[in-house]
Amino acid sequence: MMPAMEIAAGVGRFDLHGLTPGMIITGFGLLVLLLEIFHRGRGGRAYLGGIAVFGLVLGGMWAYLLWNQRFSWSLFRMMAYQDGFGQAFTAIVVMAAILTCLLATDYLPRHQSDRGEFYALILFAVTGMILVAVAADLVTLFLGIETMSLAVYVLAGFFRHSRHSAEASLKYLILGALSTAIMLYGIALLYGVTKTTHLASIGQLFQESPAICRFNAEGFAVGLQPLPLIGMVMILVSMGFKIALVPFHMWAPDVYDGSPTPAAGFMATAVKVAGFAGLLRLLMIAFVGWPARISSTGWVPILFVLALVTIILGNAAAIVQNKLKRMLAYSSIAHAGYLLLPLIAAGYAGHQAFNGAVPYYLVAYTLATLGAFGVLGYLEKQDQALTYDDLDGLGKRHPWVAASMTIFMISAAGIPPTAGFFAKFLAFKAVIDAAGIGQFGGVYLVVLAALGILASVAGVYYYLRVVVHMYMREQHQQGPSFLLGRAAAVAIALCAFGSVALGILPNRLATLSYISTIEMADTPEGPEAIVPAGMARTTGGGD
Amino acid sequence: MQVQVIGAIVFWALAILTVAGAALVAFSRNIVHSAFGLLAAFFGVAGLFVFLSADFVGMVQLLVYVGGVVVLFLFAVMLTGRIEQVEISNLSRGPLPALAVLIGTVAVLAVVAFQTPWGPSGDMAAEPTTAAIGNALLSQYLLPFEIASVLLVAALIGSVLLASRRKEDELEDQATAEATDQPGDPPAAGPGGEP
Fold it and tell me: Taking CB atoms and an 8 Å limit, are A147 and B141 in contact across chains?
């Protein structure tokens, strides 16, 4: 790109090359802001959404090109990685953002909030998410999370005329600031023990340092010292808040309920994707160690309990909801629980248990959830929460919308010819396989998988309730008389098409997911140690 | 020996100042007193930084928090009418659960603090850190430094967006002025409170 840059402060061209998707997207964010200033007259601002989508497509394509090079290297003196994992998660986040922008071009003008800043904030949030996905250092990870969160707090309060939206934003801001403080506390404690913030260095210490691990008489690590343990737990708590795991989930239904619907969809999907990317980096690179048995004091038992309560309580709370947005919020909480299963499997049985379930699940979940939020955004009336009854007779009034919604619900429930089925299958398969590989306590994993499957069967109730209301109830309320905007229709159609296509032909994406997971740089069993910045090397896959 | 005694006295004085200031923030019923308590707490923290030979961070703490944030708070408090008559400003709700959480947290942290073999800090010469921080920011930590600018842009845009009102909004408000309970602008969730 720019060889001259190599002199300045040790920035190599490879450094900038690896971060190009993020730079493109930040640039387009600034461009949208500028164009907003020069916007005159009463015309719509959908073109700003179009520009944002163009920038996102460009960034996503660049991420794909980078990923296709099959090289890993570290950027900016080991502050970030360019590897298949980071670029794959970048692509998923970008996909969610594109769909959100398309939905917003239709939704915002109808709610008197047609402002270009919405798209700029989405782009800035995506930049933060990309940095979370490529982070190689706790500093980068933290700043990425904060960039993402700040933008999303504002998106939650984007309806300035609505008290509901302001409440959502304030609640999210205050609880989010608390979770940020907890994460910083944890990082400070960890730094106090390890004297480094670099993930891979922390990982090395977690495997061999007596300041961090407790060793038994034979020299095997049996657990963590209290200080690193509490530091790790604090970081996990904060990440748990971002992805809405159960004891830290209270904000999610209220915030999704009050936020503009496309923004709520963005929070439920893209924020969660970035959270899982950061969590995977932390767990696989930094908090690694001995084969973490269920009974040890590693993170596996913590995540085990969190996954169990998240799946059960998320599904149970979703069943009793009557408002659709709250139902989707609890369903997204339950999905976060299922998404923990492959992580537990990987922590328990090592990298043999990787089967690419996490990226695949996130793609399937993003398509179904954003599509469902898109449909709700179309049906929504001013400042009035949608309930199941508002869907009555939708199958007759708007057959295409109802058909798409049916696909989303079937996919979210995990019923066969959809992506959601295959995603759940991969997640549960990872756990069952791990139970066979690991040496101790595999029976706990089998119990976890069994309870998870039971809970997801119970979850079918509230997903199919939507379908029942759409097709089997008489209409007694007037739905929207206007037509779905073209951009939003394209977004919903893309979600529906993707959900079905990935369910029928899951191979390609499953392979990509698998490769991207094992292409995470710096994992102990994956590609070996890092090389100095600016020197590319092949990874050749870790299997 | 003498040095250690003096060091201990300085440390405890600063620690008491910080904690007492923080307690005043939390327990005072008068919001102006709370703001002054915050001032004391920030002063104490700045002193602790200097005491740890982190001169640059100590000065930044003074300039930004004592000189900027607290003064801003005071302005906001003084310029907001009738803020002192608001009765519910600082009442504690649900003291029992809060006490349980507090005791649990303190117990866990105390166990951790007593079980950890704290190593000696070593003799660190008190040398100026500003140049080292500057070098680190533009070499090792260049990427975080640049990300921070994106973060600040997002924060600025967000706070302006939430706090400002445009002509179109006011026209709309006049048109829909029938709802009297609509807040003019909700407590602008500006990101200023972010640590």
Answer: no
Residue linked to tokens 């730079």:
A23
Q: What's the distance, CA A210 to chain centroid?
A: 35
How confident is the model at residue A476, as a pLDDT?
A: 67
Is pLDDT of B43 > 90?
yes
Under 8 Å between Cβ of A376 and A324:
yes
The answer, for B172 touching chain A at a CB cutoff of 8 Å, is yes
Of A38-52, A281-295, A381-395, A402-416, the least confident: A281-295
Q: Which two tokens stand for residue B6?
A: 């003096």
CA torsion A261-A267-A270-A274 (nearest 10°) is: 180
What does the alpha-carbon distance between residue A67 and residue A87 come to, in Å, rounded to a whole number? 6
Instruction: Report helix, strand or coil for A68.
Output: helix
Q: Chain-wide mean pLDDT for chain A? A: 86
Mean pLDDT, range A129-136, rounded to an integer: 94
Q: How confident is the model at residue A8 (pLDDT cuts 50, 70, 90)?
A: very low
Query: For position A67, what pLDDT does the model report?
Result: 85
Query: In whole angstroms, how far apart are CA A296 and each of A212, A215, A309?
Result: 14, 12, 20
Residue A285 confidence (pLDDT) above 90: no
Across the interface, do B173 and A154 touch by the CB < 8 Å criterion? no
User: Maximum Cα–Cα distance for chain A, whole Å?
Assistant: 77
Domain boundaries, chain A: 17-523
pLDDT bin (cut points 50, 70, 90) of residue A263 is: very high
Residue with tokens 């930004």: B64
* CA B58 – CA A103 distance, rounded (Å): 48
Print the SS3 string covering A93-150.
HHHHHHHHHHHHHHHHHHCCCCCCHHHHHHHHHHHHHHHHHHECEHHHHHHHHHHHHH
Contact A462/A319 with Cβ under 8 angstroms? yes
- Complex prediction ipTM: 0.85
**What are A540's strand-pairing partners?**
none
Which pair of tokens denotes residue A193? 């023990």
Q: Contacts of residue A131 in chain B, CB cutoff 8 Å?
A: 147
Number of other CB atoms surrounding residue A6 within 10 Å? 15
- pLDDT bucket at A445, cuts 50 / 70 / 90: confident
Report the residue of chain A nearest B165, measured CA to CA: A160
CA dist A218 → A208, A221, A229, B13, B163 (Å): 14, 9, 22, 47, 62
What's the CA angle centered on A94, arms A333 and A372, to 5 degrees?
A: 45
Alpha-carbon gap, residue A130 to A339, rounded angstroms: 20
Task: Look up residue A168 and give its DSSP letter.
Answer: H
At residue B191 the predicted structure's pLDDT band, cuts being 50, 70 and 90, is: very low
**Chain length of chain A:** 543
Query: Which residues on chain A are in Cβ contact (under 8 Å) with B148?
Result: 143
Q: Which amino acid is at A197?
A: T
Per-residue pLDDT tens over the stretch A351-371: 666 788 999 999 999 999 999
Q: Pick from B112, B144, B155: which is nearest to A150 by CB? A: B155
Contact A141, A281 (CB under 8 A): yes
Q: How many whole angstroms separate alpha carbon A146 and alpha carbon A108? A: 25
Using an 8 Å CB-CB cutoff, list chain B residues near A150: 151, 154-155, 158, 191, 194
Q: Do B88 and B27 meet the contact criterion of CB atoms below 8 Å apart?
A: no
Whole-prediction pTM: 0.89
